[in-house]
Amino acid sequence: MIPFDFAYYQPSSLAEAGGLFAELAAQGKEPMYYAGGTEIISFSRLYQLFPRAVIDIKKIAECNMLEQKNGKLVIGAAKTLSQIQESNVFPLLSWCSGRVADHTMRNKITLGGNICSRIPYREAVLALLVSDSEIIIWGKQGLKKVGLNQVFHQTLLLEPGEIVVQLVIDQEVTRVPFTSTKQTMDGLVHYPQDRIGYPVVSIAALKKKNQINFAFSGVCSFPFRSTEVESFLNNPSLPWDEKIHQVAEKLPAEIINDMEGSADYREFVLKNMLSDIVKRLEG
Amino acid sequence: MVNLVKMDLIELAVNGEKRLVMARPADTLLHVLREQLGLTGSKPSCKNGDCGACTVLIDGQPIKSCLMLAVEALGHEITTIEGLKDSPIQRAFIDKFAFQCGYCTSGFIMNCHALSVIHPDAGDETIREWLQSNLCRCTGYEEITEAIKSVLAQEPKENNG
Ligand SMILES: Cc1cc2nc3c(=O)[nH]c(=O)nc-3n(C[C@H](O)[C@H](O)[C@H](O)COP(=O)(O)OP(=O)(O)OC[C@H]3O[C@@H](n4cnc5c(N)ncnc54)[C@H](O)[C@@H]3O)c2cc1C
Ligand code: FES
Ligand code: FES
């Protein structure tokens, strides 16, 4: 049971949602956009979040789109991970989304919710980072479209009141070779039916014009795609074994060290997974 | 636009009936089903989305009712274990000894029932993926898998793929 009260609003347009947010924020209600609501409910129950108002975005048409148009794939932020997985319009995203939580949870968790989550893993983001996806955000100035890699640094950089509306992916990228692996405390996860759990390490990789794009979760306390790591790993003058051996020195932050996996263990898993990924993509 | 700014009456469609309940906007569906409607078949356990004991169907899809607000269910068809009567999966759970203490059972049955309706031709991988949403501390899951397989085997198949 959530031990405090909040008000619930279900607007049907972006402007209405943004207007409500501004009004409620001015009243000191600390409003939150509400999509699947699974994180808001579970954190509120534990008194780790205290919104006085939630604004449900699920009835906003733009947030519910899933369409392929003019060479682009457009996915609304309120689409659930199950809907995305089942549509299989972008197989790498299906893989990454299909390993978040469990099947029933994925009927509720949304893509936008996973991207904006405060937990460190946010695995669906990996597919979007490596594919150079664009993100459409609604704010006071209206809609803007930006590269996700420009606005995702450890976390998605949103101004108060901004709404993630859609993700836009170049359809060409949905057809290039890719691979993705996740290891949990219990073992390797290749397919959704394998195992569930937060990742010890989760990697998505995609090969585009002889270069492999990599994104990581479970390694540092945030998901990332790093230019430094990527240009080092793609340096043709060094052999793969050597690059993988040295990869830990290039990471953007310390490796997580907790009860689900020590830093040493995570580094070991990271290197093994990278070797495996390179074998799969480089043959 | 549906707004619920304070505790108020809302009308939910539960097991084919319209039911009026007094709900706070912050009340979970699980809480309202149990405490307002006396539908105690949906079980509270982790309340964190991990165990699946609270699983109900929303428009036929399994959802963990501990992580859904009651107000979110407005305009949707809710089915709880009390809404299933003599379904093949209930019979199969008895025939295959698919429960011991029974605490997890209603959640498993709701999930398995949805699976048999949505994917009557489900193969081993789909069964495994769906069943991972629920935890059982008593059985070894084998009997539960046998129960769902026995139901799927009875379903008329359009596509065996
Ligand atoms: C049982 C369980 C298991 C999990 N396992 C995994 C896992 O294995 N891997 C993993 O990566 N994650 C996992 N998660 C975490 C989950 O992916 C996140 O908590 C996610 O935020 C839930 O999405 P939601 O749609 O329910 O979010 P909500 O609770 O609706 O929102 C979460 C946050 O995002 C914001 N938000 C949501 N949508 C938008 C939007 N369109 N625009 C702006 N802000 C928005 C909200 O304001 C809030 O701050 C798990 C969660 C649970 C409950
Ligand atoms: S009580 Fe809802 S998933 Fe455990
Ligand atoms: S039968 Fe006891 S928890 Fe499943």
From TrEMBL, chain A:
FAD-binding PCMH-type domain: residues covered: 1-174
Pfam families for the chain: FAD_binding_5
Gene3D superfamilies linked to this entry: 3.30.465.10, CO dehydrogenase flavoprotein, C-terminal domain, Uridine Diphospho-n-acetylenolpyruvylglucosamine Reductase, domain 2
GO terms for MF: FAD binding; oxidoreductase activity
Coiled coil residues, start to end: none
InterPro entries assigned: CO_DH_flav_C_dom_sf, Diverse_Substr_Oxidored, FAD-bd_PCMH, FAD-bd_PCMH-like_sf, FAD-bd_PCMH_sub1, FAD-bd_PCMH_sub2, Mopterin_DH_FAD-bd
Record keywords, A-Z: FAD, Flavoprotein, Oxidoreductase
PANTHER family: XANTHINE DEHYDROGENASE SUBUNIT C-RELATED
Identification of the protein by name: CO or xanthine dehydrogenase, FAD-binding subunit
Organism field: Desulforamulus aeronauticus DSM 10349
Higher taxonomy: Bacteria, Bacillati, Bacillota, Clostridia, Eubacteriales
UniProtKB/TrEMBL annotation, chain B:
PROSITE patterns: 2FE2S_FER_1 (PS00197), 2FE2S_FER_2 (PS51085)
Domain 2Fe-2S ferredoxin-type: start-end pairs: 8-84
GO molecular function: 2 iron, 2 sulfur cluster binding; metal ion binding; oxidoreductase activity
Keyword Iron tagged: yes
SUPFAM superfamilies reported for this sequence: 2Fe-2S ferredoxin-like, CO dehydrogenase ISP C-domain like
Matches recorded under CDD domains: fer2 (cd00207)
Keyword list, A-Z: 2Fe-2S, Iron, Iron-sulfur, Metal-binding, Oxidoreductase
The keyword Oxidoreductase appears for this protein: yes
Pathway noted in the entry: Alkaloid degradation; nicotine degradation
UniProt protein name: Aerobic-type carbon monoxide dehydrogenase, small subunit, CoxS/CutS family
